[in-house]
Design brief:
By secondary structure, the protein is an alpha/beta fold. It contains eleven helices and 15 strands. The strands form four sheets. The chain has a seven-stranded mixed β-sheet, covered by helices on one side. Strands 1-2-3 form a three-stranded antiparallel β-sheet. It has a three-stranded mixed β-sheet with strand order 9-11-10.
Length: about 325
């Protein structure tokens, strides 16, 4: 075993190619002759065996994720399918395009809503300092376990993981779960739901001031499952004071609509009132970034008036926006 890669020559089992497959060999000779189809089936069975028994091994099995020229180790859990999807480039490729554009050796990266490390382990590598916030206890444990598996990497020394939610006020908030803890969809918006749990909360403005990050080249990625509509308007003064900051904000208009549908009572004007409130929430959010340039995640220009009109008329809004001082 070497750096997460399976090296047949370093084990007692060896493989020898044949015309239609391979022979598996031990020191005593041929163990099995398998054709190519049987080899693939064996590969699937071995993978299934590892997944079924991962928690019982004395050392956690690891996967080396290699993506866009960067590599990192993660522990093999029931999220293996996700890492394979990320590695194939099928998961949020636009997000990584933004990282590749903005992150460099002078950047301090704040990952707000880090889940199990899906963006943090990649984005931490080229930057000066990286800090991740994740309030979900189950997700945070997997995140820190994955981060620990990279402690020999040169970039590991400038990483920091904080189990907390970014919120309008420091103290505590409750988070709830759409399915189960650790599923990437925990949210303060669900804090009143059954099974919700209190977590530490941190005001981002206070944190930036305490860490003396105001003058740094900041890149802040925020993905908080709908709570962004509460956090960002409360941070207007801080966001306006940052002269070298860029933001990737993942919006969740569908969760905002759910919330508004619950809050606004039934009646003939309900749909109209929901649309007006939906419009107002997005208008308030965009106002926070006055003076910033705004684009869609693919780099195309964002036209606020057009998009706000669409929000009012159709109840739709973009999912991901990039705000920069460029």
């Amino acid at each position: 075993m070497c750096k997460g890669k399976f090296d047949l020559d370093s084990t007692r089992m060896k493989i020898k190619k044949q015309d239609n497959g391979a022979a598996l060999l031990s020191d005593e000779g041929v163990v099995e002759n398998l054709d190519a189809t049987e080899l693939l089936a064996l590969s699937d069975r071995l993978k299934e065996f590892v997944l079924d028994n991962a928690e019982s091994f004395s050392q956690p099995p690891l996967k080396e994720v290699t993506f866009r020229g960067r590599s990192f180790q993660v522990e093999v859990t029931d999220k293996l399918w996700f890492w394979e999807e990320l590695e194939s480039g099928k998961w949020e490729s636009d997000t990584f395009d933004v990282f590749d554009r903005f992150l460099d050796k002078d950047t301090v990266f704040l990952d707000i809503g880090g889940w199990i490390g899906s963006t943090f382990l990649y984005a931490s590598q080229p930057v000066k300092k990286s800090i991740v916030f994740e309030p979900d206890e189950v997700a945070f444990k997997e995140l820190t376990d994955n981060l620990a598996q990279n402690n020999s990497a040169s970039w590991h020394a400038h990483t920091e993981a904080i189990q907390a939610a970014i919120a309008p006020e420091s103290g505590s908030v409750s988070i709830g779960f759409r399915h189960e803890s650790g599923d990437s969809m925990s949210s303060v918006l669900l804090g009143d739901s059954e099974g919700s749990t209190p977590v530490q909360s941190v005001n981002m403005g206070d944190f930036i001031a305490e860490r003396r990050l105001s003058d740094e080249k900041l890149f802040i990625k925020m993905d908080v499952e709908g709570f962004e509509y509460e956090i960002l308007p409360a941070l207007g003064e801080t966001i306006q004071s940052l002269e070298k900051a860029s933001f990737l904000i993942s919006l969740h208009p569908q969760f905002l609509l759910e919330q508004l549908n619950t809050e606004i009572p039934a009646g003939k004007l309900k749909t109209s009132l929901i649309r007006k409130a939906f419009f107002a929430k997005h208008q308030a959010l965009l106002k926070v970034f006055k003076g910033y340039n705004c684009t869609f995640i693919n780099g195309k220009p964002f036209k606020p008036r057009k998009e706000l009109t669409k929000a009012l008329i159709t109840g739709q809004f973009s999912r991901d926006l990039v705000f920069t001082r460029e």
